Amino acid sequence: MRLPKLLCGLAGLGLLAMVGQAHASLVVNLNTSDPAAGLPAGTLATVTVTNFTSGLIFGVTVDVAPILGVNFVNSGGPHTPFVFNVDSQLFTYVSGPNSPFTQPGGTTDTPWGTFSNGINLTANNGLPGAHGPIDFTLTGITEANFVPNSLGHIFAADLGITAAAGFDPAFTEKTGAVTGVSAVPEPSTWAMMILGFMGVGFMAYRRQNTSAFRLA
To answer: pLDDT digit string (tens) for 129-188?
Structure first.
């Protein structure tokens, strides 16, 4: 009799953990390119926003990591090296962005619309020799404050590719804006969700068996 109770207890902890960690991190792939840019299909960079707390201070770390051979550029005009959209400006940059990236930057990345904030690139404005990744820390907001803009995009970037990316030579030196369209949970979140669902199933099964016993 103690084993079923123990399993129910573990399942309950799994459900609580799922609630507590389900939104601990936001991971978005920059995988949709401006058709006019001629960039290859597939994920060119990944944006990871992670919550943190330190005493009474809370905030997020933001990491924007391009794949090998893909660089941030500042091609000018309506393109910004990196932009993000949040529903609150009550935050502070406490770290970064790392050199040669600076804030503030432009807030437009055609054709993905206007964003609330942007990061600029002060050197190597074009290929070759552009830089990445971009890392910075904000306090006063959480990943829940990162919301889609009027066109449905949370992040966008001005990226270029080099021969090191392994793409067809026709793509070398191409630049253009890409945007993120898919968010994926952390592996730990998936594990907690699965544990939670198993707990729900087990408790429903146990309740059904108890009812049958009482009817008999």
So the answer is: 777 899 999 999 999 999 999 999 999 999 988 776 677 777 777 788 888 754 444 444
Whole-angstrom CA distances from 49 to 108, 137, 190 are 21, 9, 17
CA distance 138 to 143: 10
pLDDT digits (tens, 9 = 90+) for 91-108: 999 999 998 999 999 999
User: Could you tell me the pTM of the whole model?
Assistant: 0.73
- Under DSSP, the state recorded for 67 is P
Of the segments 27-41, 63-77, 80-94, which one has the largest average pLDDT value? 80-94
Q: Where are the beta strands (DSSP E) in 34-147?
A: 45-54, 57-66, 70-72, 82-84, 92-95, 101-102, 117-121, 134-139
Q: What is the DSSP string of 147-197?
A: ---TTS-SEEEEEEE-GGG---GGGTT-EEEEEEEEEE--HHHHHHHHHHH
Neighbours of 11 (CB within 10 A): 20
* Nearest alpha-carbon partner for 210 in 6, 4, 12: 4
* C-beta of residue 136 within 8 angstroms of C-beta of residue 66: no
Cβ contact 178:39 at 8 Å: yes
SS3 for 90? coil
CB 138 within 8 A of CB 101: no
Residue 183: strand pairing partners: 28
